[in-house]
Amino acid sequence: MHNSGFSIGSANWTIQTDYEKVAYLSATSSRTSHTKAVDWEKLKGADVLVLTSVSVAPERNPEESVHMLCVTVVETLKRGGNVLIPIAPTGVLYDLLECLAANLDQSTVSVDTPIYFLSPVAESALAYANIYAEWLSEKKQNRVYVPEEPFPHSIMLKSGRLKSFTTMHSNFSREFRTPCVVFTGHPSLRFGDAVHFMELWGGDQKNAVLLTDPDYSMMEVLAPFQPLAMRAYNFPIDTRLDFGQINATIMRELAPKRVLLPEQLTKPPATAPTRTDFVVQHSNQTPFRVGDTLSVASSASRKRVRLDPEIAKGMDVSARGALAEAGMCSLRGLLSAYDNILELKSDSVDKENDRSPAVRSRLGGQLVGAALIEALAKIGVRAEPVPAADQSVALVRVPDWSAIVAILDEGKRSKITCESKANRRRLADVISTCLTPL
Amino acid sequence: MPEIKVVPLGAGQDVGRSCILVSIGGKNVMLDCGMHMGYSDDRRFPDFSYIGGGGPLTDYLDCVIISHFHLDHCGSLPHMSEIVGYDGPIYMTYPTKAIAPVLLEDYRKVQTEFRGDTNFFTSQHIKQCMKKVIGVNLHETVDVDEELSIRAFYAGHVLGAAMFEVRVGSESILYTGDFNMTPDRHLGAAHVQPDLCPDLLISESTYATTIRDSKRARERDFLKKVHDCIDGGGKVLIPVFALGRAQELCILLESYWERMDLTAPVYFSQGLAEKANQYYRLFINWTNEKIKRTFVQRNMFDFKHIKPFDMTYADMPGPMVLFSTPGMLHGGQSLRVFKRWCSNEKNMIIMPGYCVAGTVGHKVINGARSVEIDGRPVEVNLRVEYMSFSAHADAKGIMQLIRDVRPRHVMFVHGEDAKMEFLKEKVEKEFNLPVFKPANGETVVVPTRLDVRLDVPVSIIEHSLSLDPSPSKRSCPFRAAVRMDRAAGGDLEVISSQTAADLLGLPLHTITFSQTVTLPKIDWKQLTRALRTLDGDLQKKEDGLEMFAGEVTIMRIKEASDELELVWDEGREEWVDLILERITNASNSP
């Protein structure tokens, strides 16, 4: 989990194995705001980058929007008009309150001009912002060490400049003074207290409504209130990464090997079909649609296996035979993949309990019937060659163990026919002594 | 074998001056940097000259971790970083980072103004020291460098207290700092990710032998004593640290005053208290669920009955209750008030926490009837009550933690030797774990497991897994070879047996086993269906079936119509019984 700088608690994620990394880049902002700076480091060099959230108002610079908004508020108040800002109760609001207060202080607008924040969660939204210092920008974070509250809105609340209410039907009607600034929901202007304020102020051209949510188009939002005497402004504030940032710096710095992204981001937006720069540019990208299942082939050809210290100690990679340059030794044991943890255990542990057979190395070399008979004779077991019908097969009979060994494929294969499991194993052991373990 | 080395510079078989050096995987970490409040000479600080043979600390230490803001855990930090000199990273949680400098400043004032100590760190030192501190959030893995990472877990005890996991590769330790396993009025219980399995658990053991009675009973006892005393017209002095237990007791007393409708005034040392409550407000996330849930409507730390104290109130007639700082009667307001109240037997002092040996508090608890304050003996007549409210885990809590995290070794610090011995025996008996309790300066060496990892081609792993028919895949026969190419820098490469044979210029020899199966009748279709459940890629051949890419074959015997020959590679031995069972079942079913 890595800070994404978009809001309090917003994060980008990486899923990592020994060999592969998948990064999920969600709503991310590299602009200065109240949030902690975005953490890019861990997202670098991913095999797959999933990109989902990009600014939907790419033609508007959010800093400029905020500036224009503050200027417009000051102008409207000076004119004696009221300002309505339909907005979501968290996020951008915190920055707007701070900027607006600073701008009002510098203007000739009376400091007594009230700012109202109406929302069922107004009180909590303001209180919660102050208790997550670890998610805030360094400047804000340092305030808690003083100790002071990180956001100035708590001071504004104390001084009475900012007042919060659950709805306009509460004590608000008693406190309500104009001209004023009202922050309230919902930004769609279809429900919430914002609708009442539109009705109340819509008829007077001194008043102004300022839309900031980039997800709603101004035309559609205001349509039911037309004709509207009140002035309407659109200052979309979308702090998410825009195409310029993504193509110019992010893609180059993160250098993902492959990008998965929604189809919409691969072609210019409907509102600006000619802007071919409003697409994500990456040489290896896979678009997806809602409901699609994407399979991404694993590029890893190896997996990391943990070795039992016993095995690691027993490894002797000294040069062998024809391979003077490179040492080689066998690696054998019992592999456990339980809980998806790969671990190679020594087989000697199980040998004692006789649960599992010892794991024999694979063998190299060609088996010759005479050698097998000799090896058996050494341990006192009688064996004799048997003439076979097929010339390419050599047969050895071991009457003591009632078994027959067929040597096939020029000695590269031996077939033991025997009813007793124990005798089969014993014969295989003897065969292994005639050959080179790998 | 790799090993972890641990040396306590403080808190070894002792309470106070926590400072533990850990060498793990070639990294050196200092856990806590506390001071001893029982001493006012050089012994109050850990012996930093021990570290790295007296060389610069920055070169030797990779990082310093502070578990919480109590002075016996962070009191020497400015001394170490500014006077001895250390410029590396210092980690602590956000609340600790906020509160520690306040307590350090408070402590500095007591030392320099009341004691006249001149050879001491300054306010500037504290400020510079705090600049080197990096804030850590709970459960966040912080990479100190490429190999060393640390992670904090909630420890209860006081606001912002944390346990720290220190990890280098596969080796890890868990340091508890001070912790509390039972939730209280304003803090939650310590919570560690279960099954952390550290190589070493370094645990505090302040209350190693006590299994404390029920909290409710203790609290009732406390309230009764306070009530009795003020009914008798006495004054109650409760020396506390500004942050921590003080808030817990304030909440307790506040609700009691409310319920009983008492009028006797309750005071709290001025200044620090308001600041303390402000910290609690800002770090409400670190308190318990109940306070978090209600903090928007009602702040638990805005007290109605508890008012700030002024020194002139001390001589006012009539009963009163005073929460005064500091907690161990080692100086400041607590000691001044104590001096005025201690001769009157109507008064009472309640010591709600541990007192370090050598402090006035410690002497008073131990029943001294006369103590020396400012060089003059003072008679102690007031009632003395010692009630442990400090939020440490008791023996039960420590055992619980060990059960939860399942360490490979345990080490006790921050406790008294005799008590540790008791707990050590208990842990050794119950968990069969090696337990250490080193004295200061004594090195403990903990062996860790050798960690060797090899990169194995997926094809070899897949084949190995397919050799074991059991779904748990715990013991799959694995055969391969390791090749070390000297020319390529001595890297180890895992290769298949086939490749190994090719390199040696040998053919690969396969041992197979064969068995004849006699069946009442042979229905190939049914047989195929039955065996496909074992191997989806089963192949039909002219004269039989081939499973697992030819590693098992089932062939008809030419002359006989009721006999099959089953041939399998040695490695497929485990599957044979299963295959035989399927074959028999398939031919028996209609």
Automatic annotation (TrEMBL), chain A:
Top-level taxonomic group: Eukaryota
One GO term (biological process): snRNA 3'-end processing
SUPFAM superfamilies assigned to the protein according to its UniProt record, in alphabetical order: Metallo-hydrolase/oxidoreductase (SSF56281)
Subcellular location: Cytoplasm; Nucleus
Keywords: Cytoplasm, Nucleus
SMART domains in the cross-refs: Beta-Casp (SM01027)
Protein name in the entry: Beta-Casp domain-containing protein
Organism: Plectus sambesii
Pfam name, any one: Beta-Casp
GO cellular component: cytoplasm; integrator complex
InterPro entries registered for this protein in UniProt: Beta_Casp, Integrator_9su, RibonucZ/Hydroxyglut_hydro
Domain Beta-Casp: 93-218
TrEMBL record, chain B:
Domain named Metallo-beta-lactamase: residues: 16-226
Cofactor(s) of this protein: Zn(2+)
Classification via SMART domains: Beta-Casp (SM01027), Lactamase_B (SM00849)
Top-level taxon: Eukaryota
Keyword flag Zinc: yes
Signal peptide stretch: none
CDD domains, A to Z: INTS11-like_MBL-fold
Major location (coarse): cytoplasm
Ranges where the Beta-Casp domain occurs: 246-364
Keywords: Cytoplasm, Hydrolase, Metal-binding, Nucleus, Zinc
GO biological process, one term: snRNA processing
GO terms under cellular component: cytoplasm; nucleus
Subcellular location: Cytoplasm; Nucleus
MF terms in GO: hydrolase activity; metal ion binding; RNA endonuclease activity
Record carries keyword Nucleotidyltransferase: no
Family statement drawn from the similarity comment of this UniProt entry: Belongs to the metallo-beta-lactamase superfamily. RNA-metabolizing metallo-beta-lactamase-like family. INTS11 subfamily.
UniProt cross-references to PANTHER family, sorted A to Z: CLEAVAGE AND POLYADENYLATION SPECIFICITY FACTOR FAMILY MEMBER (PTHR11203), INTEGRATOR COMPLEX SUBUNIT 11 (PTHR11203:SF37)
Protein's name according to its UniProt entry: Integrator complex subunit 11
Species of the source: Plectus sambesii
